[in-house]
Design brief:
This protein is α+β, with helices and mostly antiparallel strands. The chain has a four-stranded antiparallel beta sheet, with helices on both faces. The chain has a single domain, classed as 2-Layer Sandwich (Alpha-Beta Plaits). The chain contains three helices and four strands, in the order βαββαβα.
Length: 98
């Protein structure tokens, strides 16, 4: 499955609203994290979208110049950190509800 990661600067959260309200994009897998929660510098919001090519193309239309699409080297690292975070949450829930 293809994916994109977008970095939104603090104060650009209206773009996140447009992303999650879009009919096509909202049917994809979306993960939102603060850069600090992933051990990265800055106060940006990171958005991972996994899904169909046409949804990722639509994503680029919506984001435009408001956010930054992460380049390949950093993209793989951030993807790994988000997935590790999701796994940790799932493990914690498993321990709670066993």
């Amino acid at each position: 499955m293809e994916y994109e990661i977008i970095r939104l600067p603090k104060g650009k959260s209206s773009i996140l609203g447009k992303i999650v309200q879009d009919d096509l994009i909202s049917r994809q897998t979306i993960a939102v994290r603060d850069s600090v929660s992933l051990g990265l510098e800055g106060e940006d919001t990171l958005i991972l979208i996994e899904g169909a090519d046409n949804a990722l193309a639509r994503l680029k239309e919506i984001v435009g110049e408001e956010g930054t699409f992460i380049a390949s080297d950093e993209k793989a690292d951030i993807y790994r950190k988000i997935k590790e975070d999701e796994d940790n949450v799932a493990e914690g829930l498993g321990l709670m509800f066993g």
